[in-house]
Amino acid sequence: MSKTTMQNFGFVPAVRAREAARVALVGPAGAGKTPVALDLARELAGEEGRIAVVDSERGGALRYAEIPGRPEAGGHRFSHLTLERFTRETLLRTLRAAAEDRYQVLVVDSYSAWWDGPGGLREVAAEAGAALRKDSRATSPDPGWERVNPIERQMLDALLAWPGHVVITLRTHTEYLTDGARTLRVGGRPIQSRNVEHAFPVVVDLADGVAMVAKPGGVRALAGAVFPEEPGREIAAALREELPVGVGPVEGLAVALASPALTYREAVALRQEVARRGLREAPVPHPATGGLVPLGVLVQERTDELRPRTGTAAPAAPAGQGVPTTPAGPAGPVEEGQAREAVARAREAQPDPTKSPALPQQLSKIGQHYARLNITEASAREVSELILGADLDAWPELTRAHAGELVMILQRLPNELALEEWLGKCRERDAARAAAAAPPQREEEPVVGDRQEPEQPVGAGVCATCPGRILPRPGRETPEQCAVCRRAGIPVPDQEPESGGESGGSAVGEEPQEPADGGDVEVVDPEEWPGRGEESQDQEVDEHVWIDPGPEPASAGEREPAMA
C-alpha cells in the first residue's frame, strides 16, 4: 500500500504557531558573514544561551571566539566543530548531536561546503553520472543529478526541522563593478542550490558590511530593510518581535481539538500530526474538566467522540468522562510534577494489553502477513505459537500484546525463506527452555576401589554364594547359584548341606523330580552343553532346560567359562 493511500487528507483549523529563526546570510568572501552570524546567534540565544558552530572554513570561526582571561578583547562564547568531509551523513549526524546536547542556536559556516566541498553534492553528482554513463543507463544530459536531488531535499528538511534557531552562511561567486575611479566587489549567485534560498524564510545579502534583506520571511520589520551598522543585532531584534507571536505546537493542537466545528476527518488528521511530532505525552488542560491530561489521550477521546456511528452502537461517552484528570489550577505554566502524574494516571487507565482482546487493525495486518508468507489457515496456530513461544488456548482469539508482537515480527520477514529461518531459531529457543526446565540427571553409580560395580540388567538375579556373578535371568523366591558354585558343592544360605551322594545331586532315597511347567529349570554344566563335545552332537535338548550361551570367546580356539 502506498503512502498516498494511507494519508488522511483532512484539513485542520489554522493557528499561528511560534517559530524558530531560519536565516541565510549570503555574500562574497570578506563580506563579514561569520561575525554577523555570531552576533545574530548571540542575540537570539541570550546571554546564557548555548551556541553550536559547524565550521567548514578550516577553523575560520575561531578568530571570533573569546580569549580566556581577557574579556576586554571581546569575542563570542560558543561551541565549535570542524568538519573535513561534507556528506549527507555528516550533516545529519551533526544536527542530531546538536539537538541531543540542547543547543539553542546552530550556525553552519558555511553551507556552501556541502555543495562544492569534499563529498559535496557536485562530487556525488559527478560520480553517479559517470557510473550511469558507463552502464549506458543515462536518461538525461546530467544523469547524476537525478540521484542528488533526493539527497538535497533530505538535507534541507533536516536543517529546517532542527528544534532551535538555525543560521547558515552561503558564499557567492565574486564579481567586480567599476564606478568611476572606484571598484566595487559584489557577490553573484550563491554557491549552493537555488532550493536553499527558496526554503529559508529569511535571506540577507551582505556586501562590505552592509546587510540588505532580500527575503523577509513574513517579518514586517525586515521588509526592504537595510542595516549599515551592526546588522546581526538589528536583524535579531526584528526577529524577536515577530517570531514569538503565536502559540506553541502543543497549545496550537489543543486549541484545534477544542474547536466546536471540528470534524471526524480533521480529528484524524490532528491525531496523525500529534504522532508525527512525538507529542502524545505532552500535558494539556482538558476542555471539559480543566485538568491536565496527555495530548494523545485528548486527541483519541475527541476522535472517538466524532467517529460516525452506525447501527445500534452505543453513543459516545461525554467529553471528559473516563479520562483521569488533575484538578484545575490557576492559569500559568504547567508544573513538571503535575504533568508526570497526569501521564502516569492516563497510562493506568488504559486497558491491560495482556488481557484485552486484539484490535481489528492488528488482526487485519496479521492476516495480510500470513497471506504474504503463504501461511495456511491450518498451520496458522502452530506458526503463531512457535513465534510467540506460548500456548494459544483461545485460538483464533488473541490478546493485544500477542497481536502486537506478531505484527512486529512478521513485518520484518520479507519472504518465506526468512520465515523458515526464524521458525528454526524459535525451535532452538524452545529446546533450550525445555532443557533448562528439565530435572537434573541421576548421578553416576559410585566407584568401589579401582573398579566400578557392574550394572545389573533388568530382571537379573545374583548368585547366592558368589555375589560377583550375575545370573542373566529373573530371580526366584528361593536363592539360586551359578553352575560353578553348584559343582563345587557350596551350600546355599538358609539351607542344610546335602549329605551323601555326589555334590549337587539329590538326597538319598529321593527320586529325581521332573521340572513342572512354569517351575524352576535346571542349569546344565557348560561342559555338557550340546555342541561342546563329540559325544553330545546327537543329544536332544530338553525344551525345559534353559541354556546360557555365555559371552563371546576372546579369540579363536579359546573360550572363557560361561555362567548360568
From TrEMBL:
Region Disordered, residue ranges: 306-360, 433-459, 490-564
Chain ranges of the AAA+ ATPase domain: 19-210
Biased composition (Basic and acidic residues): 337-350, 441-454
Compositional bias annotation for Low complexity: 309-336
InterPro entries in the cross-refs: AAA+_ATPase (IPR003593), P-loop_NTPase (IPR027417)
Sequence ranges of Acidic residues compositional bias: 511-528
Pfam families: AAA_24
Full protein name: AAA family ATPase
